[in-house]
User: Fold this.
Amino acid sequence: MKAAGWLAAGTAIGALALLALLYEKSQAADPAARGAVQDDLRGVHQLDSDWNVAVMSAKVGLHDSYDALVAPVRRIAQLLQAIDLTQKRQGAPVSAEVDALRSLFRQKADLVDHFKSHNSVLRNSMRYLPAAAAEARDALAATRDADAFRIAAGVSLCLEEAARFAVIPEAAQRERLAQSIAHVEELLNAWPQGGAARAATANFLSHAGTVLRQVSEEERLLAGIVKVPTVAGIEKASAAYEAFFAGQAALAERWRQALVGYSAALLLLVGYTGWRLRQSYRQIRRMNAALLEANDYLEHRVQERTRELADALASLHESEAQLIQSEKMSSLGQMVAGVAHEINTPLAYVRSSIETVGGQLDDVQALVHHAVARDAQAVFDLADAFHQHGILQELRQLARYGLQGLDQIGEIVVNLKNFSRLDRSKTTRFDLREGLESTLSIARSTLKAHRIVKRYGSIPQVECAPSQLNQVFLNLVTNAAQAIEHDHGVITVATSCDDGWVRVDVQDNGSGIPAEHLKRIFDPFFTTKEIGKGTGLGLAIVYKIVQEHGGRIDVASTPGEGTTFTVRLPACAPQPALQAREEAAA
Amino acid sequence: MSIPRILAVVTLALSSWPAAAEPIQPLPPSVPVDRARAELGRALFFDRRLAKDDSISCASCHDFAQGGGFAAVRPKGVGGKEHALNSPSIFNVAFNFRQLWSGGQENVEGVVHAVVKSPAVFASSWPEVLGKLQADAALQARFRAAYPDGLTPDNAANAIGEYSRSLVTPNARFDQYLRGNANAITSDEKAGYELFKKYGCVACHQGVNVGGNMFQRFGVMGDYFAARGNVKPADLGRFNATQREADRHVFKVPSLRNVALTAPYFHDGSAETLPQAVQVMFTYQLGRPASQQDVDLIVKFLGTLTGEQPKGLQ
Assistant:
């Protein structure tokens, strides 16, 4: 049962795990992540566009500061980092595109950095050029020199060209500016004068040259900035990611179909299980009803059965009583047979004695007859004959024998009386040794082949039914005698006192009881004798009687050596007078 | 919303509204940083264990009393070894597009990694530094709380970076002027600002950090290094990082915020005073003469760029 339970639990967990797996797989194409990535890419695109606008604003001079040309760098880097993390998390193979995009933006940032440097210088020089030109012209005019005047004209022209070049940064214009600068330089070199005018003109030329260089540089840088294929890079990354996502979505779709199928199967299973449960529930309800019915009927049956059992018990008690009675009868029968035999023997020789005496009376009658007839010689002859044959001694002896025989019979009668104890239903305080003595003499014929050893220790009285206990002792000694199959049998009867118990041991050196029978000897009808030879109730009744007296009976036996039965009965509290008598007798 | 609350919001909005069309913008009151990590950074910023011989900390050369810079021409690292460059300010670094005179590091974390190893600064190594720091159980515990992987070189550098970025000096008088308080600066200072714009200083020293957002050659209109002489590798600027001719003598344009506090000036500390520095700029960057009066007014304007000492972490 337990194994089945574990199996069921395991299957359930497995089924749920599979469900969870299918669900997770079907979610693999995460539209949220895709949305995030595409949003970030669009964000990058937007920042890139804003960046371009900022650069153009700076070129045109519309910007406030270069902060707008710097901020996109960090923000684009952050977005690219976010995109990279998201796509890595999904296992999308677009790292290369993202890295390429990163390097494109680094390229662009580098170009923008250079642009800022050149743009700022160009702006300053452009703004200063008119003032520088004015300063140079003024200084030159102050010299009142004709060459200086020409130089001043050249400066003006140069200024114009520079202004034009700043607005039209074309090669032709660049050439013209370069030439005008060269022209002024030439004139200045040819001019011998120094001083403030020269310095101012040199200053102007320096800035004009700066303009020339920086405009070209700025154009180059701007062209480069515009050429950086960031937009293409963004689109490439986006396309690659979309391709990946489409693949994921297709896969997820298949998993989703599997999930739907599996869910349907589970649902069917659940439905089936539900149906089975309903069936089972109905069955249970039916069985419950039947059970309740059966329960009621059972109660009725139990009462009936109890009554039957009570009747059976009563008849059993009856039988038991009958059996005890019949055992009693049977042992009584045994005992009666024994007693009859006992009585017979002395009765026989009393009879024979008296018969003999009766026989002799003929001679005594002859003597008296002769005496009355005054036949002295016949009297003397008969008297001599009596005297010679010792007839009178013989007669006396016979009378003695007869009286002895009668004494024996009288003893047997006394013993019988003692044994039966006509008031047997009442209990009394009884010395067990008396009972043992009565029993032994009653059973003398049975025991005559064996040696009886009596070991009577001093014991207190026992409150009991003496006739019943005598029955117990009779049974035990009879069994002991029957157990001895050899001719040196010894039966030992001992009494002792054992801590509030009176103990009687009956021991024989007979054949003993095997261990497997020992348990059963007190069982009713258990006997090892042949059919007809024993009822098997003797020890059962002994056991019952001892129990009823609040005692116990034990048996110890060694097959081949002998058996000892031990009866323990509760002792009475000793009566003081009796105790004194005991002590006096001891 | 109650009237006072509406007024408060509107005032706040107006005060933070950047002054339209000016090339310089006011600083925001603070920079958002991770508080726990910045606290750790503060501990490390003043911790001398970063130095090989435990003699100096970041604060030794980025002195809060010196506008976040250092009072000498060049600071000295472990063992008295002189650094090649003047100490730039640690204030407002969050608004620099790159770090170092050469712009060679993208962020403060990169700078921290460099200076730990630099023989002219801490002359140490991360294993040594971490060895010393790991003995500090309390510090370790704080790192483990603030960072998932605890005390590592990257996390230590990031902590210092977070702290550095939190060091903002808002509410300079010029910022207050930009926010609408016409009386925050004097008329001379205002005149100096107009000259600052007119002469074109603002072409490079612009934006929220009054610079710090672009590169420029030092000696655009004249050869500064030829005039100064004694050209050292440090003078090559960005060229050292990119090895491109176009980047020779090119430097990151420094921020002019708190410039009144950060003498001496330039990467070589060659200008002891602001008027000197302004003159050098006129000669080599603007390529035009300027009267002493104009220089003085510009210097006055530059004085209005001094902000409040960093409040630390808000």
About this structure: The first strand of chain B starts at residue 215 and ends at 217. DSSP finds 13 helices and two strands in chain B. The first helix of chain B runs from residue 3 to 16.
